[in-house]
Design goal:
The protein is α+β, with helices and mostly antiparallel strands. The chain has 2 domains: 221 residues, Alpha-beta prism (UDP-n-acetylglucosamine1-carboxyvinyl-transferase, Chain); 199 residues, UDP-n-acetylglucosamine1-carboxyvinyl-transferase, Chain. The chain is 29% helix and 27% strand. The chain is built from 12 helices and 23 strands. Strand 8 and strand 9 form a beta hairpin. 53% of the residues are buried. The protein binds shikimate-3-phosphate. Shikimate-3-phosphate binds next to helix 5.
Length: 436
């Protein structure tokens, strides 16, 4: 499917954004292996999180939906059943990497598969630490499908993450629950900490030591833990597309309500404010995850040299930051972003293609890009999203600034993370139409 987009004159209004994808995955995983019934509100019903939910149904977990809430009948740490067939995780890297950790500790074998994009993403980064723990895990060419056999039991390890990845960290944390001894994970660049927060919410004991940018997490094995109720806030990564839209579309003022603003996820806010964005954080609430209403007004933006250290904390927002940079005055310089090449598509390549179609001046590098924000664009453009949800949404926002009839192709995968993206865009004043 494609999206047709016309130029927008202004955005106005208040909206709720669907639930956080990262927190949704973790809420189901921990509810399933807790003792007792957990209720989850705000669960993201995007394809990625539904893949995780269905995997647990396949492993014998009863999951029901009542009054917009998901009820999970947890069966305890050792209560999962061998799935009858392969676990198909679709496009979802988070599902595959987190479940590989959890399944390495089970007394049954399993097979994890995914779509073409997921089957080409790097899995060596989880296979290596899981093997060190004693897991029987195999993948040809270090990518999916992944086969997991029953091991002789996992041992705790001390592991320094070679890539700044919350998925790898969370994979090891879940395996660590099944190890015979304590596990220690060392992060040199702190990544999103939703798994740590979710462990704490379920009363699972971990110890975190933070020294400057470095963090050590100790996970203690064989803990019994009990169900809890979870409120999932709006997804900051989904919100980021609308934040940038409101900044660049003239005469705009919008409020995004109840958004998760966990500091390990929101470096984009800091960067945009440094670029000159008029963004206010209101109504801050501290629950297990910090939430707020975000007020955004049209702003004139200036280019920046992005601090590389921030990249793990805005990795999913880089495609839309590229679009903001295209409208900022001056040359934005981004380096140290090689991880973009390992996402649902090679996002450096896909965004270079998009910027090229838009008529933006840029120079791409192995691990980054320079973008000259001249704001002078082509009209009536067609951009391919390469089947990547975030490329599709970032390109759509850029198209709202162009005259003529613009088209973003191959957008079905928006369903993985932001199922009502077009509806919400239109409710704020964007002129977008899905072409079937
Ligand atoms: C995620 C972590 C990030 C992010 C992904 C979700 C998570 O991946 O890109 O969309 O939920 O842990 P990496 O940890 O591999 O960078």
């Amino acid at each position: 499917m494609d999206i047709k987009l016309l130029k927008s004159t202004n955005l106005n209004g208040q909206v709720l954004i669907p639930g956080d994808k990262s927190i949704s995955h973790r809420s189901i995983i921990l509810s399933a292996i807790a003792e007792g019934i957990s209720e989850i509100s705000g669960y993201l019903k995007g394809e990625d999180c539904l893949a995780t939910l269905n995997a647990f149904k396949q492993m014998g977990i009863k999951i029901e939906e009542h009054d917009q809430k998901i009820k999970v009948y947890g069966n305890g740490l050792h209560g999962l059943r061998k799935p009858s067939g392969d676990l198909n995780l679709g496009n979802s890297g988070t599902s595959m990497r987190l479940l590989a950790g959890l399944l390495s500790g089970q007394k049954f074998s399993s097979n994890l598969i995914g779509d073409d994009s997921l089957s080409s993403r790097p899995m060596g980064r989880i296979i290596e630490p899981l093997k060190k723990m004693g897991a029987s895990i195999y993948a040809k060419e270090k990518s999916a499908p992944i086969a997991i056999d029953v091991s002789e039991g996992l041992e705790g390890i001390s592991y320094e993450l070679p890539v700044a990845s919350a998925q790898v960290k969370s994979c090891i944390m879940l395996a660590a629950l099944y190890a015979k001894t304590e596990t220690r994970i060392i992060e040199n660049h702190q990544t999103r900490n939703h798994t740590e927060k979710m462990f704490q919410k379920f009363g699972i004991e971990i110890k975190e030591e933070i020294e400057d940018e470095k963090k050590t997490i100790k996970i203690f094995p064989s803990q019994e833990f009990y169900s809890t109720n979870i409120d999932i806030p709006g997804d900051f990564s989904s919100a980021s597309f609308l934040i940038v839209a409101a900044l660049i579309i003239p005469n705009s003022e919008i409020t995004l309500k109840n958004i998760g603003i966990n500091p390990s996820r929101t470096a984009l806010l800091k960067v945009l404010v440094e670029m000159g964005a008029d963004i206010k954080i209101n109504n801050v609430k501290e629950n297990i995850e910090r939430t707020a209403d975000i007020l955004i007004k049209t702003s004139s933006l200036n280019a920046i040299v992005l601090d590389e250290k921030l990249i793990p904390n805005l990795i999913d927002e880089l495609p839309i930051l590229f679009i903001a940079s295209a409208f900022a005055k001056g040359k934005t310089i981004i380096r140290g972003a090689g991880e973009l090449r390992t996402k649902e598509s090679d996002r450096l390549e896909a965004m270079s293609n998009a910027l090229g179609n838009l008529g933006v001046k840029f120079q791409s590098y192995r691990d980054g890009i320079d973008i000259v924000g001249n704001g002078i664009f082509e009209n009536s453009v067609t951009i391919d999203s390469f089947g990547d949800h975030r490329i599709a949404m970032a390109s759509s926002i850029a198209c709202t600034m162009l005259d003529g009839k613009n088209r973003v192709k191959n957008v079905d995968n928006i369903q993985t993370s932001f199922p009502n993206f077009i509806e919400i865009c239109n409710s704020l004043g964007i002129k977008a139409e899905l072409l079937k």
